[in-house]
Amino acid sequence: MIVRTLASILDTPSHVKGASFESRRILLAADGLGYSLHDTICKAGSEQLLEYKNHVETNYVIEGKGQVTNVATGQVWPLGPGTVYVLDHHEAHLLRAETDLRIICVFTPALTGQEKHDASGSYPAPG
């Protein structure tokens, strides 16, 4: 059994901060589950162009307001508490945060926690 608290992640190497986000990486590849679980804050006013070419990402918004745009189609969806969006076809997307957005993210395959976004907004392939 794995039991962790968000407080135990804060200000550790599993708490990654960027100009437009904070990712609190609660479960990672080392846990051996095949997926990773992140509690992420996208900062108000930020825009992030992302495309996870090597991972499927599921996102569940629990706080805040924003929108996600499918770059290929231009389709825009509003985001707010209770909204889930899944990048099941590795879609390039633009994430806009009108207020701080708090999102629970699940990555498959699991992230190690050391990944950095490349120029396309993607993480490298595992292994």
Uncertain runs with pLDDT below 50, 5 residues or more? none
Distance between the ends: 25 Å
- Which of globular, elongated, flat, extended, rod-shaped describes the shape? globular
Helix/strand-derived category reads mainly beta
Output the helix-strand order: EEEEEEEEEE
Major beta sheet summary: 6 strands, antiparallel
How would you name the CATH homologous superfamily? Jelly Rolls
CATH class: Mainly Beta
Order of neighbouring strands in the sheet with most strands: 1-2-3-10-5-8
Helix content: under 10%
- The percent range for strand residues is 35-45%
How many domains in all? 1
DSSP E strands, number: 10
The number of helical segments is 0
| CATH architecture title | Sandwich
Integer average pLDDT: 93
CATH domain topology: Jelly Rolls
Q: Radius of gyration, Cα only, in angstroms?
A: 14 Å
GO molecular function: ectoine synthase activity
Keywords: Lyase
Catalytic activity: (2S)-4-acetamido-2-aminobutanoate = L-ectoine + H2O
Function: Catalyzes the circularization of gamma-N-acetyl-alpha,gamma-diaminobutyric acid (ADABA) to ectoine (1,4,5,6-tetrahydro-2-methyl-4-pyrimidine carboxylic acid), which is an excellent osmoprotectant.
